[in-house]
Every structure is written in structure tokens, then in C-alpha cells.
């Protein structure tokens, strides 16, 4: 049953992908010499897109049969694919030509990154000016593409021209359309229940800690406190963990935001805290810094800021994931770490959630939901069973449909993506 259900979940997820595209037009080009290259393109940068082609089209004189050009590298696409998106395909629209009658040129096109070929080849040909389209919304050209790669202005196209006759050959237009599926990030807040000191060589003071920290709704019942009473006192590292996060397996972490309340210095004094993401008691990110004198709430990071860390659901769901901070005073402070909340943003691998499918006569709302899921049916389903599964196929809830409008308590479901199945209709929802 589990294998079958996992398969059906995969199928409905593919059917529900919300696909978007972004078009990049190169503004720069350069020749890359290669051993078999006999001719280089004449290039003037910027290429200057006019709306219908390049103002400064690269041109090569391929005047001997079987002339081969050096590689022509187009880049500076200025793409902006959202972090967490899944690249699904690349389509290239390519206008080229300029051969004598009876002659033609074959162009081999490749996806490129940092001046290197990263894909298999597509080939098109032209004599007079011709527009060719290579690839499509589901064709990755055998490349492994991520938003960070395609958003880098070194991402582009490398092409090489091979003539079968006499051509003054012009690359008149090139447009790269990148297709992707995206979602609005969901967030999950973790609040540490434990802390410990980690001695470091420059640490002069340790925090006084009582575990569990005991979150009250507005801060810790047992706030870690350090007496930083000398100018330039530096604390040992204070490690917060036990966040109890539950990010779905297969999700893409897009960012981390930390809300941090701290303070407790004499007038004219303040403390600077350096914050890091941590895993297994080790720092795994770059630093964020905030400061306070009187009690102050600072926010570091955001929904698309990964703190230069490589994060996965397995890492953040581990209760060793947390925050390491180190305090540095500029005066006299009895310094309290009063509150710390770690907000992890993610996108699920099922990129969009539709409350109503094309064939569905059933509506569910609110979606996402925190406590309850309301179900409305537009044709009677009374007497049918409903079932709620998670994305792995595990059954979490089931019951009998007793009327055409009813409410299901989902408050006890772990945060994540679920499918409710009624009769033959499958609808996805998110439990926050």
C-alpha cells in the first residue's frame, strides 16, 4: 500500500507543478580559443539588444569549406530565478545566418557556466537568416542546473560554427528561456529548550545556564546570564539547541531568520553578539552581529538568506541544530539572553498546492492551515470515506463523510505537506 500511494502522490504532484519562466538575453560575448578553431568572431560589447536582435551582432568570416570557428561564449543574462525553485528546462531561441547561396553553417550550442561547457550539444543550421528553437520547458540539456548557477552572470551559451561553404556569418539574436517551478516559502519556528557553554581560547566569561530554558511565550523563564564587567570582556560560546523543528523530507531550505532579544548593560555600555548557525556543536555558517545595551530585539537573516550554510531538512531537524553566539562587551554588563527564535523557511518538493483540482468537485480551506481543515463538496460525498496521508504515503487520519460541509481537526498533525483523499479525488494541503 505504501509503495502504491507514494507513486500516486508523485503523479499528482507532477500534475500540480506551477511552472514559470524567465528570459535572459546576453549583453556580452567573447571568443574562447580551441584547438580546431580557425576563425574568431568579431565582437563589440555590449551587444545591445534592440527588441528584435543585437545592435552589435558577432560576425565571423567563414570563407573556406569546413572552416570551424573558435567557441563563442554569450553571457551576462541577468536572470533572477527564486532561491528554492526547481529548474525544469531551458529553451534557446537563436537567429543566425549570412551564407552564400548553396552554403550553410551548422552551429553547435551548449549551456555554459564560468566559461565551461556544462551540457550536451544542440545543433541548428542556417544559410539565409533563420530562427531556430532548441530545447523546451522539460529539457535540461543533460545539465544539473540550480538557481545559483543560472542566476550567475557567467551562465550562458557557448556555440561553435562549422561552415559547409562561404559565409559572412552573423549571430543576430539569442534568447535563453529558463523554466522553473517555484513556491512561496513556508516557515517553521524553532525555540531552543537547552543551552550550554563551549569554552574557546578567547573566552573569559561563561554564561550561567539553567536547563530547560522554559519558553513562556514572550521569552525564556531561565535566561542565560553572563557578567561581563570589564571593558572588552569576551564570553565563551553559548550554544542554543533542542529546537524541535520538523521540516518535510525533500524540502528545500531557502533561508533562516533569527529573532534575538538581549540586553542588560550599564548606561554607556553595550554588548555585541556574534551569531552563527550550528550543528553538532560546530559553527556551520558565516556570522551575523547585533548589539544591545538596554533590552533590544534584533532580527538577523530572512526567508532567502542561508547565512552561507548548506542546509538540509536532516540537518535542521536534528536537535543539535541551533545557534552559537559569543558576546563581546564594550563596558559593564550583566547580560541576559532573554529570547531566541529560529525561523526556518523552506519550499516543498511539490511546488504548488491547489485547493481545487480541475476535475474536483471538492473544496478545502484554509490552505495552509494551523488547526482545522474545512471541506465543501459540490456533489454529495456522504457515505464516502476520507483519508489523510503525508507525502511518504503514511496514513494519519480517516473518517466517514457525514454531510457536504464538514470540519476535520488537523491540529495534531506534524507540520508538512499532506493529501486528503475523498472517493477518487486527491487534494493537497499544508499543515503549519
Describe the structure.
By secondary structure, the protein is mostly beta strands. The chain folds into three domains: 19-181, Jelly Rolls (Sandwich), CATH 2.60.120; 186-347, Jelly Rolls, CATH 2.60.120; 362-431, Immunoglobulin-like (Sandwich). It is built from three helices and 29 strands. A hairpin with a 2-residue loop joins strand 28 (416-422) and strand 29. Residues 1-17 and 349-360 have low confidence and may be disordered.
Please bin the fraction of helical residues.
under 10%
General form: flat
What integer is the average pLDDT?
87
Number of domains: 3
- Sheet/helix structural class: mainly beta
Percentage of residues in strands: over 45%
The separation of the N and C termini measures: 27 Å
Most strands sheet? 6 strands, antiparallel
CATH architecture level-2 label of the largest domain: Sandwich
**The CATH top-level class label of the largest domain:** Mainly Beta
CATH topology of the largest domain: Jelly Rolls
Low-confidence stretches: 1-17, 349-360
Radius of gyration: 29 Å
* Beta strand count: 29
Count of helix runs? 3
